[in-house]
Amino acid sequence: MSTPSTALKIGVLGSGSGSNMQSVVDAIKAGTLNAEMRLVLSDVPNAKILDRARTHNIPCAWLDCAPFKTKLDGAAEQRCIEMLKKQGVDTVVLAGFMRIVKPGLLKAFPLRVLNIHPALLPAFPGLHGWQQALEYGAKVAGCTVHFVDAGTDTGPLIIQRAVPVLTGDTPETLHARIQAEEHIAYPEALRLLSEGRLRLSGRRVDIL
Ligand code: GRF
């Protein structure tokens, strides 16, 4: 018998291609994730993630984050929170969102803001985690789904999936191998959240 779950009401923030958002939509459609995608927001007006949302008839919008270039703050943060709340969102999924989120959003959705990072945290936080791993000479790379806290890529870890770094890998081949795992990890983490199976003890997230 499967674990009873509560349908998550997901809002996605993304800046790029939206392949992770797509993996969540696919899991919802396949019936393996009990969730509804209520809103997709992008800080990039012509981002592919918005096209993907339109294809699936998911409400979506460009979120003008000016005057800030690297963070979601001030009036834009307030607008973002209002739009998410208006759509009934209870879980915020950062999927390739290239901005730092600030305490306002975290307070509006306590322990309900998740992120995916293309490295095995705490190794290689920040930009281009896969490239950092390759340049460092790591033998194993991967991805991490984590709760977001006030730091950058520092929140409690939910799921990690590892891949080998192979001889001859380029940033592109390694990133593609990591992304294939991201598309498994994010729906899985959200499924565990929807089933109430994530328990936070200090920094550790236990999977019940
Ligand atoms: C992913 O590699 C993710 O780990 C990072 O940004 C990328 C987003 O890709 N945070 P996509 O837009 O989901 O295709």
Describe this structure in words.
The protein is an alpha/beta fold and 208 residues long. 34% of the residues lie in helices and 26% in strands. The protein has a seven-stranded mixed beta sheet with strand order 3-2-1-5-7-8-9, with helices on both faces. A hairpin with a 2-residue loop joins strand 10 and strand 11 (204-207). It is globular. It starts with 7 loop residues before the first strand and ends with a strand. The mean pLDDT is 97. It binds 5-O-phosphono-beta-D-ribofuranosylamine. 5-O-phosphono-beta-D-ribofuranosylamine is lined by residues 14, 16-20, 49, 95-96, 116-118, 143, 179, 182.
Features:
Rossmann fold; 7-stranded mixed sheet; two-stranded parallel ribbon; 6 helices; globular
The CATH H-level homologous superfamily: Formyl transferase, N-terminal domain
CATH architecture: 3-Layer(aba) Sandwich
What is the count of structural domains?
Answer: 1
Compute the number of helices.
6
Give the strand tally.
11
Class of secondary structure makeup? alpha/beta
Do you know the CATH topology? Rossmann fold
Order of strands in the sheet with most strands: 3-2-1-5-7-8-9
Which range best describes the helical content: under 10%, 10-25%, 25-40%, 40-55%, 55-70% or over 70%? 25-40%
User: What is the percentage of strand-forming residues?
Assistant: 25-35%
Listing every helix as H and every strand as E from the N terminus to the C terminus, the arrangement reads EHEHEEHEEHEHEEHEE
Radius of gyration: 16 Å
- Ligands (ions, cofactors included): 5-O-phosphono-beta-D-ribofuranosylamine
